[in-house]
Amino acid sequence: MLHYALIASFLTLSFTSIIGMPQSALAASGDILGAPSVKTYSAQKLPRWGAIQQSTLNARFNATDKAFEDWDGFITKAKNDPPLRKMMKTNVFVNKFAYKQDNWVYDQDDYWASPAEMFKNGGDCEDFAITKYFTLRQMGFDASAMKIAMVYDVYSGTDHAFLIVTHNKVDYVLDNREKMVVARYMKNRYRPHYAFNEKTVWVYDSPQMVQKMRHDDGSIIAGNR
Fold it and tell me: Could you give all domains of the chain from N- to C-terminal order, each with its CATH number?
């Protein structure tokens, strides 16, 4: 499931920050799925994400687990492919893992899994996105070209997460529920809460319905991932 406590705190900050902010400032902000960000933070605001980065980048090279061997084999075979093919193959490869909710595996409402944990246990939407992020990093993609996006799905009334990769000035969505698509084709479906990579967290003006629901009593909409 999504990092709901963090979303709630970020939404409080973003909602108060956007009041009185000039439109020029919004237009100058980075955007995702066509929505302007209203605030940026250091990625240090996501300590679990930092721990995943360190454990993955430092430990994976010594791993002998078969899942890691398969991962390395996949990366090696695809490493010389064109960028778009790498992205499409990565989306298909990672989507083969089992979808499992955090409470099934970790007995927690919200847990961000490392690729190692994903390979062993399966995972939910943000775990798929995290594993795709590190797969493409190992294939040579720069962190600045990628964002893991936490979004609200207008169609289903649920929260979701996926990876966005920018290539040749076009944003692509790598989703555990879909084939890889151009992000602009999904702009009517998703409203972003926040997004992040290794350096930055971008916070967005999320749907008012979700803000109100979470500000009142902290409850959440069940995911549909």
Answer: 4-217 (3.10.620.30)
CA distance linking residue 13 with residue 34, whole number of Å: 21
Taking each helix axis as running N to C, give the angle between helix 66-78 and helix 125-138, from 0 to 180 degrees, rounded to the nearest 10. 50
- Which H or E run includes 149? strand 146-153
Q: 29-43, pLDDT tens digit by residue?
A: 357 788 888 889 999
Comparison of pLDDT for 128 and 55, the residue scoring more = 128
Mean pLDDT of the chain: 80
In 3D space, the residue among 207, 155, 169 whose CA is nearest the CA of residue 83 turns out to be 169
Local confidence band at 22 (pLDDT 50, 70, 90 cut-offs): very low
Burial class (CB in 10 A: 0-12, 13-18, 19+), 2: buried
| CA 91 – CA 89 distance, rounded (Å) | 5
Distance CA 164, CA 183 (A): 8
pTM of the model: 0.81
Tell me the C-alpha distance between 86 and 154, whole Å.
29
Please give the angle made by the CA atoms of 93, 62 and 141, to the nearest 5 degrees: 45
pLDDT digits (tens, 9 = 90+) for 58-106: 665 555 678 888 898 999 999 999 999 999 999 999 999 999 988 888 8
- State how far the Cα of 94 lies from the Cα of 199, in Å rounded to an integer: 24
**CB under 8 Å to 33, separation ≥6 — which residues?**
149, 151, 164, 171, 183, 184, 186, 187, 190, 191, 192
